[in-house]
Amino acid sequence: MIRIHCPYCGLRDQTEFTYGGDGRIKRPGDDASLTAWNDFVYTRDNPRGPHVELWQHSAGCRQWIKVARDTLTHEIIAVGTMDDDIEAKVADPDRGEVEA
Fold first, then answer.
1. How many CA atoms lie within 13 A of 29 on its CB side?
2. pTM for this predicted structure
3. Residue 88: in which H helix or E strand, if any?
4. Could you give the CA distance from residue 87 to residue 50 in angstroms, rounded to a whole number?
5. Other Cβ atoms closer than 10 A to 29
6. Share of the chain above pLDDT 90, in %
């Protein structure tokens, strides 16, 4: 069982959360082409290793959070609010680890 540290509620089981997708994908602008929208909706990488994801604490505070997780080992590397810069911690693990 994966345990995720919600920044608002504390340590919880993964079953309380709903996966929301890749945390690094940016929404295209309103004037973007259909190709850009198609890529945004349907095209996804299948990364191996550290990856930033969006999760919603659906059975708790209902807040969206960012979770840096190793997709190979399922180890939680860092957790933060939507405003936190956890992407840098994935790129540079020596920068420090947020309690997971």
1. 2
2. 0.80
3. helix 87-91
4. 10
5. 7
6. 68
